[in-house]
Amino acid sequence: MRFGTLDFTPVADSPGLLAAPAAAAVGAMQAADAASVLVSEIDPGLADTAAFCEHHEISMGDGANCVIVQARRGERTWYAACLVRGADRLDVNGAVRRHLDARKLSFAPMDAAVELTGMEYGGITPIGLPADWPILVDESVAAHERLIVGSGIRGSKLLVTGALIASLPNAEVLPIAQPAA
Fold first, then answer.
1. What is the C-alpha to C-alpha distance for residues 122 and 49, in angstroms, rounded to an integer?
2. What is the rounded distance in angstroms from the CA atom of residue 19 to the CA atom of residue 24?
């Protein structure tokens, strides 16, 4: 399937284009869901949303960023993933902090995000995240027909539906995005 300037193929044809946790999660999906996850190899230097979208002629609104946040309340620290379209920004200190009932919320340190997910920074995907992490999916992501998301590595991207993202274990759909200024 062609999207923008990229040709996407089923993940089953190129499992090496996913980080190990993402490949394992796709492998554990029901056959119809797994078959709907498509992958395309990209230049790792173009993995960041703005550069990727411009180069491959894809709208920022057709991509979803997976942002890892670190929540704290008292002595407890936990992590969550948040998905917003590339054209939006995450309401970290409003909707997300309230929903997670965190006293303090921040973007997870890069080293922690990479170590805990087993994925590359700039390529983290909601598919294959640690089983106990909440996945907060903005309503606009869940409603989107075709979305580009990370694959767990910087050298490829996945093409999925918002419905698939919303159906992931621990996924919750809620309004967590604000239009980018």
1. 9
2. 9
